[in-house]
Every structure is written in structure tokens, then in C-alpha cells.
């Protein structure tokens, strides 16, 4: 079993250690072996149904991830179950919308581990029963996946062949019914495990424990630490992101699976007629381990605007011995990616194009790359971006020096210049622990608003500013140093926008320049290539997804304004009522769609009666 673990951030800016690569060496994966003893198969046909027809090639379809609550889990309260269902359902729906696979006909049957049920195999290659089990292990009881007992109904049967050349066999275990309409079986285990108790900041950890004949993972476990599910600091959005992160690991983004990725460039069918890629991770000239696969290389070159031949996907090197690799991206280069070693505030995490291209390069999936979310970090910064040697020379506005206050690079939050173990001395503006969100109206502090003209609200963003009201500066000698402050903005075109300070009119803010505001002393800095460039970088809303919209789901990006929606002053009462009625009808439609979508995601419990929750 391959184990992956993720620490979830409970407070903005906090980072925790990921122990995935420390413990995966202690586990193994059940893979279909060469020979008849463990061939992948569909459920055996009954005499009435006849033989099962061989699978026919079909176009890839969205991956069907079936979730199953393990019987080892403690009995959940109604509140815990509701939280679990909501978070897992949303994560599964998101992943299923991104990845497609070639679906095999019939129910999914997992393999039994021949090393558990069999005492010895026939090893004479000339015997009729070569590689078949000759004697059963009398201690064999069950199959497990990360301490979760796999139901016999989910498992293929196994036979014993007492004589090497005789067709006589004894059925040790019969075939189970299998799990219908399933491409990946995800067991959920909610428990206060030893790992949860040992690592108080762990929300969840996961494994994949079975693969098919093409190497694609087909089953795994996500353990959710129970007290994190019940605690006052519980965050639905952070839990959804954690489950997505764990699913991406279990589905193929893991160092234990890198060498099994397949090259399907010569085939029109994903997973069919593909050749092994072999080793895909290599060190560049500076010693940075990278993933070198075609789609990843192409996306990194596009993202960083570079033609450097050594530009592959950089992997985290913290605590990784020379020549070894990590299962996470290097956060100095791909900060904010869903596959960083530690996730920051959930509003800053992106399901980024580099990660989706890596999943495409596994050869197991067709990935809807159009649904990738903009990776703002490092966009267009060149091949050396994120290196320890260049992050402190002030050549990039993504990094900072000192310990002052400013703006997070997405400009949704105020931030403080900080470093962490993954940045290795480089410093970035991280969201403040309290009241950092410019888009939350309740974060406005009256005194700060009066002095600096700040405006908090949905259309507000963070700007570097030293603005001070002229009358306040004369009376209070207000500190007018440059720091992050929140002001309203609206887009007028690509990389073009206006800003509004308390008491002022809308003022054009030239990207890369500075402006003065009437009635204030000091300057306001207008960020370049950060605002009105990425239409999917927006504050959270009540949309169906907790994540910001993908790039393709936003229309008219050039003319979009992200200021709060306001009714015109001359709107008549009748018109206002019409608008209200339309909004109500739209809300009802959204609820209806959500109910319809959610019924497609089934979460089963462990008892024999497979009741949909």
C-alpha cells in the first residue's frame, strides 16, 4: 500500500509537515501479477448468463469514484456524517469532472494478495499450473487496505491447485458480486488513529492499495481524523481540498507510481497500446529533481515563458536525500498548487495546469485541461524563478524581504512577509491570521478606514499604499509607511482597472505605476499583471463549488468588473421586483441542479445492506 499524507492549514499562513514519503516505504501495493494466479478479471459468469464478452474499446468517460465507509470507523454522529458526506461528495464530483478513463464492463473486483492466501506457488515454468497457488495459507483471513478490511463481496475469488500438472482445483474463496459502475473504489475511515494522535495538525491521510493490469490505481483509503471532523476549527473548504489532494496522490501523483506512468502518445485510446515511460524524474544541472514528461515540460515552459531545456516539473527537495524524489511540487516555484507539500488558506489554493498535465502524462486518464485554474504564482517569470539564489535579490515581485506587511500575491488578502521550511529562506507575503481578507466587509476597522481610507467588501483588493487623510496626518502624525491596505476596484479591460478610496471617486490605476488620491497624502501602488488578468481569481461565493471557477467558466473576462453589484439609482420599483424574481428563480434552479448532481455520488456504509446515505 502506498501511503500519502497531508497536513491541513487551520489558520492562514500556517504550514505543517507532510510525512507521506517517510512511511510509504513500509507498505506495498497489490498488483496483478503475470500468470493465472492473480489475473485481473470480471466477476465469473453464472451458467445462466454465459460467458462475459471481452471489453470493447470505448471513448474515455468521467471516472466513477465510489466511496465506502469502512466498518472499522466509529459510529458517526449526524453532524459528523453530514460534514463527511458534504466534503467527500464535493471532492469526488470535482475530480470526476476533471479525469476520464476507459471504463471496463462489469463490476469492479479487487484482487486478493497471493502472498497472503497462498503458502507456495508452482514455479516450474513447464508445469500446467505454473504461477498458480499450490497450497493455501491456513492463517489467511481477509484482505486489508491501510487497516481497513475489504469486504469479501468486493474481492475476486481464489483457487488452489494441489498438483502441478492436474486441472483439479479447490475453490478457497468464491468471487464476490463486485462493485458496479466503479472505476476507483475509495474506502473512507473516520477514526482517531495513532497517526492522528501523533500528529495533531493532520486532517487526513490516504493510500492506494490496488492497481489494474495497466498500472492504474483502482482502490484506496482516505483516513479522516475524527477529532478534526468534529472540532470547532473545522473547515468544509479545507477538507474538500484535502480530499482532492489525497485523491490525486492515490490516483497517480506519487513518487511510488512515477516509474509506472505510461506513454500513450501513439494510441488514440488512453491506457491501451501504451508503452512504459520508465524513469520520468531526473536532476537538472543545479541538483533540483524534476518530472520530465511532455505535457509537464510544455506547461512549465508556457507558464514561466521560458525555452530552457531543463525546465521540468520541480519536486520538493526538503528532507529528500540526493537522488531521491518527493511526491509534491517545489513550493518556491509552484506556490498555491493543490499538490504542494502543505496547503495554505483555502482561498489561495489552485487546481493548477501543471498538476493536471502531470495526471495527463500518467497515461491512465484523459484530463479536461480547460478546467484548470489559473496559477498566478511565477507567471512569466522565467526559468530561474523560485531558486534560492535569486529569490532574495528583489528581481521578482512575488517574493519579499524583511518582515513587513503587504499583500498576498493574489491581492485578496493582506499579508506579512514570512518564510517557512519549504521556502528555504525565501520570503513571501502570507495572509494574516486574522482579518486579512479584503473581500470581507466585516474585517473593516473604523479607525483604520478613517486614517487610510480603506474599504472592505466583495470588490475590494489589497494594494501597497501609504495613503493617509491629510487632516488625520496633521493631527495624529499617522505612520504613512507603505503596507497592504484594502480598497475597492473594478476592471475596465485586461490588466486595466480603477480603484476607489473612502470618500473618493473612481480613479484610473495604471498597472505598474503609482497614483495620488485627492484629500490624501502618500501614494498607492497599482500592481502589474495581477488584477483584471485572471478572471477566475475571485473571492469565494455561494457557487456550487468551494473553488474559484475555472478559466473557461468565466465569460467576457476583458469587460468583467469585480466590484459589488449595485442597482442603478433610477431603477424603478417594478424593475427591481422583476430582478428579484429572476434571482429567486435562478437560485431555485441552482438548488435543483445541485440536488440532481449530488445524487450521482454514492457514499456506502460497510454493513451488508448497501444503503445510500
Description:
It contains eleven helices and 31 strands. By secondary structure, the chain is of the alpha+beta class. Among the domains are: 2-31 and 60-107 and 178-257 and 600-605, Elastase, domain 1 (Roll); 277-396, Leishmanolysin, domain 2 (Alpha-Beta Complex); 437-565, Roll (Leishmanolysin, domain 4), CATH 2.30.34.10. β12 and β13 form a beta hairpin. The radius of gyration is 27 Å and the shape is elongated. It starts with a strand and ends in an 8-residue tail after the last strand. Residues 1-13, 34-55, 553-584, 590-601 and 607-613 have low confidence and may be disordered.
Q: What descriptive keywords fit this protein?
A:
613 residues; alpha+beta; Elastase, domain 1; Leishmanolysin, domain 2; Leishmanolysin, domain 4; 6-stranded mixed sheet; 4-stranded antiparallel sheet; 11 helices; elongated; disordered C terminus
Amino acid at each position: 500500500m502506498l501511503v500519502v499524507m497531508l497536513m491541513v492549514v487551520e489558520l492562514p499562513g500556517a504550514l505543517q509537515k507532510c510525512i507521506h514519503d517517510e512511511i510509504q516505504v513500509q507498505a506495498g501495493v497489490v498488483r496483478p501479477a503475470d500468470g493465472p494466479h492473480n489475473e485481473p478479471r470480471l466477476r465469473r459468469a453464472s451458467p445462466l448468463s454465459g460467458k462475459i464478452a471481452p471489453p470493447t474499446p470505448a471513448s474515455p468517460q468521467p471516472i466513477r469514484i465510489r466511496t465506502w465507509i469502512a466498518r472499522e470507523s466509529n459510529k458517526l454522529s449526524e453532524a459528523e456524517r453530514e460534514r463527511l458526506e458534504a466534503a467527500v461528495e464535493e471532492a469526488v464530483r470535482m475530480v470526476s469532472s476533471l479525469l476520464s478513463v476507459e471504463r471496463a464492463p462489469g463490476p469492479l473486483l479487487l484482487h486478493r494478495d497471493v502472498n497472503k492466501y497462498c503458502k507456495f506457488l508452482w514455479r516450474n515454468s513447464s508445469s500446467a499450473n505454473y504461477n498458480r497457488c499450490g497450497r493455501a495459507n491456513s492463517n489467511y483471513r481477509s484482505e486489508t487496505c491501510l487497516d481497513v478490511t475489504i469486504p469479501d463481496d468486493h474481492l475476486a475469488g481464489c483457487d488452489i491447485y494441489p498438483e502441478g500438472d492436474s486441472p483439479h482445483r479447490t475453490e478457497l474463496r468464491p468471487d464476490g458480486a463486485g462493485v458496479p459502475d466503479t472505476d476507483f473504489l475509495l474506502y473512507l475511515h473516520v477514526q482517531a488513529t495513532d497517526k492522528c494522535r501523533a500528529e495533531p495538525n493532520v486532517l487526513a491521510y490516504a493510500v492506494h492499495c490496488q492497481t489494474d493490469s495497466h498500472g492504474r490505481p483502482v482502490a484506496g483509503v482516505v483516513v479522516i481524523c475524527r477529532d478534526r471532523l468534529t472540532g470547532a476549527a473545522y473547515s468544509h473548504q479545507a477538507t474538500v481540498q484535502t480530499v482532492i489532494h489525497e485523491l490525486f496522490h492515490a490516483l497517480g501523483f506519487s513518487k511510488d507510481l512515477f516509474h509506472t506512468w505510461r506513454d500513450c502518445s501513439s494510441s488514440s485510446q488512453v491506457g491501451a497500446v501504451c508503452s512504459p515511460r520508465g524513469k520520468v524524474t531526473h536532476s537538472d544541472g543545479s541538483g533540483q529533481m524534476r518530472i520530465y514528461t511532455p505535457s509537464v515540460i510544455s506547461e512549465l515552459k508556457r507558464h514561466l515563458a521560458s525555452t530552457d531545456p531543463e525546465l521540468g516539473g520541480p519536486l520538493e527537495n526538503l528532507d529528500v536525500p540526493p537522488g531521491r524524489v518527493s511526491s509534491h511540487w517545489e513550493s518556491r516555484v509552484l506556490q498555491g498548487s493543490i499538490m504542494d507539500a502543505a496547503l495554505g488558506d483555502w482561498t489561495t489554493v489552485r487546481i493548477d495546469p501543471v498538476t493536471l498535465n502531470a495526471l495527463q502524462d500518467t497515461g491512465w486518464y484523459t484530463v479536461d485541461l480547460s478546467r484548470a485554474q489559473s496559477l498566478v504564482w511565477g507567471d512569466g517569470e522565467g526559468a530561474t524563478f523560485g531558486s534560492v539564489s535569486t529569490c532574495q535579490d528583489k528581481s521578482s515581485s512575488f517574493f519579499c524581504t524583511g518582515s513587513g506587511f503587504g499583500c498576498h500575491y493574489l491581492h485578496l488578502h493582506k499579508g506579512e512577509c514570512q518564510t517557512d521550511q519549504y521556502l528555504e529562506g525565501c520570503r513571501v507575503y502570507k495572509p494574516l491570521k486574522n482579518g486579512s481578507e479584503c473581500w470581507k466587509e466585516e474585517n473593516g476597522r473604523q479607525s483604520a478606514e478613517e486614517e487610510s481610507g480603506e474599504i472592505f467588501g466583495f470588490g475590494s483588493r489589497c494594494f501597497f499604499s501609504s495613503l493617509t487623510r491629510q487632516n488625520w496626518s496633521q493631527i495624529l502624525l499617522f505612520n504613512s509607511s507603505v503596507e497592504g491596505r484594502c480598497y475597492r476596484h473594478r476592471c475596465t479591460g485586461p490588466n486595466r482597472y480603477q480603484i476607489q478610496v473612502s470618500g473618493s471617486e473612481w480613479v484610473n490605476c495604471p498597472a505598474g505605476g503609482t497614483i495620488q488620491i485627492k484629500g490624501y497624502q502618500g501614494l498607492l501602488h497599482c500592481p502589474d499583471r495581477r488584477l483584471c488578468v485572471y478572471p477566475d481569481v475571485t473571492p469565494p461565493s455561494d457557487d456550487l463549488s468551494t473553488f474559484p471557477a475555472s478559466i473557461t467558466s468565466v465569460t467576457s473576462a476583458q469587460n468583467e468588473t469585480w466590484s459589488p453589484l449595485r442597482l442603478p439609482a433610477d431603477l424603478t420599483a417594478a424593475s427591481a421586483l422583476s430582478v428579484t424574481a429572476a434571482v429567486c428563480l435562478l437560485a431555485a434552479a441552482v438548488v435543483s441542479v445541485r440536488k440532481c448532481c449530488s445524487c450521482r455520488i454514492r457514499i456506502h456504509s460497510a454493513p451488508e445492506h448497501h444503503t445510500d446515505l
